[in-house]
Amino acid sequence: MIPRLGRPPPSVPHRFRPGAYAILVKGDRILLTEQDMPDGVELQLPGGGLEPEETTIPGLVREVIEETGYRCRILRRVGAYRRFTMMEDYGVRAEKLCHIYLGQAGLRIGPPREQGHRAIWAHRDEAIRGLANRADAEILHRVLRNRWTRR
């Protein structure tokens, strides 16, 4: 069963929106996006919604390049959750199915293509504390705890 974050309001339709997000590691740093939002700035895992007919990994690689300007190598899926949210950018209520992958950041090929996005490198502890989405922060915490305790 996929965990759920938030509850949909009764009788309010939500658009199903599958997406993929990446935990991209380089040493003890995590690549995040700093995104301008209507009420301030948020730190998020790079990634986003998949285009119609797009599969998960190619969609994730596309989103990482658009939001950070970095290429990436996806290693494995580490979790998933459902999230009910209002997507202010699109004016739609969404049931997001968020697939989370572990990977490695590659070369930076340019600035982020999406307006209002900046690539930042955060120490793993800063990344966990700073992520706006608590489900992403919890998965990141579990992944990093396992990654650094297995050494």
Question: What's the topology here?
Answer:
Layout: E1 4-5, E2 15-26, E3 29-37, E4 40-44, E5 47-49, H1 56-68, E6 70-87, E7 92-108, E8 117-123, H2 124-130, H3 134-149
Helix pairs in contact: 2-3
Structural summary, described in words:
The structure is a single chain. With 151 residues, this protein is an alpha+beta fold. The chain has one domain: Nucleoside Triphosphate Pyrophosphohydrolase (Alpha-Beta Complex). It has three helices and eight strands, in the order E-E-E-E-E-H-E-E-E-H-H. Strands 1, 2, 3, 4, 5, 6, 7 and 8 form an eight-stranded mixed sheet that branches. Strand 3 and strand 4 form a beta hairpin. Helix 2 packs antiparallel against helix 3. The N and C termini lie far apart (30 Å). The relative contact order is 0.26. The model has no long low-confidence stretch (mean pLDDT 91).
Task: Sum this structure up briefly.
With 151 residues, the protein is an alpha+beta fold. It has a single domain (16-149), classed as Alpha-Beta Complex (Nucleoside Triphosphate Pyrophosphohydrolase).
Stretches where pLDDT is under 50 for at least 5 consecutive residues are none
Report the principal-axis shape: globular
Give the count of structural domains: 1
How are helices and strands ordered from N to C? Answer: EEEEEHEEEHH
Please, what is the average pLDDT? 91
- The amount of beta strand, in percent, is over 45%
Structural class: alpha+beta
Classified by CATH, the class is Alpha Beta
Instruction: Kindly state the percentage of residues in helix.
Output: 10-25%
Largest sheet: 8 strands, mixed
Based on the coordinates given, report the CATH architecture.
Answer: Alpha-Beta Complex
In the CATH hierarchy, the third-tier topology is known as: Nucleoside Triphosphate Pyrophosphohydrolase
GO molecular function, one term: hydrolase activity
InterPro entries: NUDIX_hydrolase-like_dom_sf (IPR015797), NUDIX_hydrolase_CS (IPR020084), NUDIX_hydrolase_dom (IPR000086)
Protein name: RppH_1 protein
Cofactor: Mg(2+)
